[in-house]
Specification:
single chain, alpha/beta, 2-enoyl-CoA Hydratase, Chain A, domain 1, 2 domains, three-stranded mixed sheet, globular
């Protein structure tokens, strides 16, 4: 597996964990089209690599992501003025393709949220399997206050926290911090300082390592299908997947490790 070359992301492979750092600190890691394309390339390059079990997304310079890049909007405006009627559609939809890919990524997605977690950054938080936030992180959907809409983000916010709360956040643009994000169900854990944040991340990664890699992949695919397929169809396939897991290498190793009171082979 070869990771793509990136300009806006720092990539660090640490055993079974790929750390992806959004690296445009001068703009609070605003998400440019280049960053969107690079994230998609990274997701694609590792999705079939079973040796990589978790992807950790965080931002450089004390911020996660302040939303979309205004320069890209200006570029789309120029294209539209030159006759490209789909310029805005293409730009916006590309972000939606990226966040959909992130949502469906078979590895565990962990977001470490500091500083600005706005717009597109908020969207990434809402598709993560585990979200850990600094208490002082600032969350919000500022789009409507700018005269635009959270077009590709709103559906994922609804899935994350429900329609009632999503309506309030999207239609008021209010900003709030880590503990409110925890109460709303956007994040799973809040840390009071950098040391606590790092400890929470390390504990999460230890927990992921205790889970069998393929079992995690199949389980994530299962839970993402809830509400998308008839329940009986979903449960029929889940039973087949369960039988395959029990009879597979992971199931046999997990059972043997339990009986022998030792860590499973994947717990490293």
């Amino acid at each position: 597996m070869t990771l793509p070359t990136t300009e806006t992301l720092n990539l660090n492979l640490d055993g079974p964990v790929l750390h992806i750092t959004l690296n445009r600190p001068e703009s609070r890691n605003a998400m440019s089209l280049t960053m969107v394309n690079e994230l998609m390339a990274v997701f694609e390059s590792v999705k079939d690599d079973t040796s990589i079990r978790a992807l950790v997304l965080r931002g450089a310079g004390g911020h996660f992501c302040a939303g979309g890049d205004i320069k890209d909007m200006a570029g789309a405006r120029q294209k539209a003025a030159a006759g490209d009627s789909d310029a805005y559609v293409s730009l916006n939809r590309r972000f939606g393709e990226m966040i959909t890919a992130a949502n469906q990524q078979p590895q565990v997605i962990i977001t470490v949220l500091e500083g600005a977690v706005l717009g597109g950054g908020f969207g990434l938080a809402c598709i993560s399997d585990v979200a850990i936030a600094h208490a002082d992180a600032t969350f919000g959907l500022p789009e409507t206050g700018l005269g635009v809409i959270p077009a590709q983000i709103a559906p994922f916010v609804v899935e994350r926290i429900g329609l009632t709360q999503a309506r309030r956040l999207a239609l008021t643009g209010i900003r709030f911090q880590g503990n409110d994000a925890l109460r709303l169900g956007i994040v799973h854990e809040v840390a009071s300082d950098e040391s606590e944040l790092q400890t929470a991340l390390e504990n999460t990664l230890k927990a992921v390592r205790r889970c069998a890699p393929n079992a995690n992949r199949v389980t994530k695919a299962l839970v993402l299908k809830v509400g998308q397929e008839p329940m009986d169809t979903l449960l029929d396939q889940a039973a087949v997947d369960f039988a395959n897991a029990v009879n597979g290498e992971e199931g046999q190793e997990g059972t043997m490790a339990f009986v022998q009171k030792r860590p499973a082979s994947w717990n490293q």
